[in-house]
Amino acid sequence: MNGTPTSAAAQTPSIYNIANALTVLRIAFVPVFGWLLLIDGGESTGTRLVAWAVFVVAMATDRIDGNLARSRGLITDFGKIADPIADKALTGMAFVGLSIIGALPWWVTIMVLVREWGITVMRFAVLRYGVMPASRGGKLKTVLQAVALGMYLFPIEALLPDWTMWIAYLTMAAAVVVTMVTAVDYIGQAVRMVRGSRSARRSADQVPGEPR
């Protein structure tokens, strides 16, 4: 009948949309980026520049696909799961690759990766109690990591003055600090969410039933 509201199924966007396509493209960039970074042990200025360019383009798709999904109503369950996985796969490859070529200490990479994947698993684990949104600190962490990794990937030693490397060191230090601080914040959020949900459930169980 004309004038009837559309069904929920009709309003649900297809997973085959431009936002999800960009997310999948970002995942596809990961092995290409890793291969370019590791060529000649990272010593080739040319391939390091290409690896840096691929990383920058891939990170740019993160902002673009998010804006498209929100502005065009293309948010899907696939996108909610695939988008953070794509981000962490790309940045994880950058951290691991930089440690393999000796540009970044392994302890930094291990700390960051344990935090990133640990918090991701925790957020999925508490989904039954509610969705834990990204905090401002989490968004700042993502930006700092992207900038710091971009600076480390760029062949500064070959193309820029030596003192510019100190900017990269300081940016990476800030990224690591914010990464760990936000981990504590997310854990606190999860604990409060679980306690609040259980408390509300106990309160509901204690309410006497209505007379029949």
Structure, explained:
The chain has 212 residues and is mainly alpha-helical. It is 76% helix and 0% strand. The two termini are 40 Å apart. The chain has a single domain, classed as Four Helix Bundle (Hemerythrin (Met), subunit A), CATH 1.20.120. It has 8 helices and no strands. It has helices spanning 8-11, 18-38, 45-71, 77-100, 106-125, 136-153, 156-159, 164-206.
List the helices and strands and how they pair.
Blueprint: H1 8-11, H2 18-38, H3 45-71, H4 77-100, H5 106-125, H6 136-153, H7 156-159, H8 164-206
Helix pairs in contact: 2-3, 2-4, 3-4, 4-5, 4-6, 5-8, 6-8
Number of helices: 8
* Percentage of residues in DSSP E strands: under 5%
CATH first level: Mainly Alpha
Task: Name the CATH superfamily classification.
Answer: CDP-alcohol phosphotransferase transmembrane (TM) domain
Query: Could you give a short account of the major beta sheet?
Result: none
Helix and strand pattern:
HHHHHHHH
Annotation keywords:
8 helices, Four Helix Bundle (Hemerythrin (Met), subunit A), single chain, mainly alpha, about 210 residues, disordered N terminus
Overview in brief:
This protein is mainly alpha-helical. It has helices at 8-11, 18-38, 45-71, 77-100, 106-125, 136-153, 156-159, 164-206.
